[in-house]
Amino acid sequence: MNKQIGIKVLWLDQYARLKEENSKLKADLDNALEYCNALLEEKEDYDFNEKEEEPLMEAINALRLQRKALKVIEEERAWVSEGLTKFVDILRTSQSNLEELCDQIINNLVSYLGVTQGGLFIVDDNIDDRKELMLISAYAYERKKYINRNVKPREGLVGQVFIEKRPMFLKEIPEQYVNISSGLGQARPTNLFIAPMLMNEEVYGVIELASLKEMPEFQREFVLKLGETIASTIAATRNSDRMKTLLEDSQVQAEQMRAQEEEMRQNVEELQATQEEMHRKQKEMEAANIKTKNNEEVLKKAFEKMSTTEENYKTKIEELNTAVTEKEDKIASLEREIELKNEEIQKLRGQL
Question: GAF domain: from which residue to which, for each copy (predicted)?
């Protein structure tokens, strides 16, 4: 009898213990269910840390933290994707002028990142035998800053990034490096990020961003990716400008060639006209030569005839001259005879 009572008491103790454990398990499951529902519904006012010490809660909390981390990563990826899409649209629609394009980029980048100041340096490819970075656009508090600044390789932080082709992130900025004007006065930035704009291991420019707060790593990665896109756009814009210049030069050369061809055509036409005129004059000269030869023959014959006539005339003249001389001699002889007769008559008159 005592043995049966002992067994019954033992069974009642085990039953009470199992009932207590069952109640505790049910409470744990209810808590876990409540915890999971709060997790799924993302209740901000739910105290997730209250029951983290329980094993089941620890496992679920680990999943919560992992899910939270994944959510942060997804948000960062979405932010990066949205930003790249935004800037790709800007780059696609603003390629007509490089300076305007850089103004659009740095203005939107400063706003999108939530930083206070930014500058965009572009490699000046108009300088022979050396490279220089030119500050083409600068913004601070949504206002464009007109700053003329050229940076040589290895000069300052920007020049170092240009040479090393690696980004630079500083949480302790040297004094007097840059000041940010705000509504509260002058404040020295606590963070500085300088990133090269790379494409095919060639630096096309440098982005400089200053802020009063630390820039997260995903934003820095975004700036690096954006720098590659900007470098590609700058290269395409410059190639387009070169092609445009070459096209304009070729059009000018083609116009010059057309003008030269027209001038040559006119020269050829004038030459042909000159040749035709010369050919016509040559024919006229040939005809004139033939006529001259004919005239020469006629003149020659006439000259020969004239020469014969002249000889005849000379002979006749000589004959006439001879006859005249003879007659003159006869007249002289007669005159002498007359004189002699007259003398004789005078003598006879004297005698009478």
Answer: 97-244
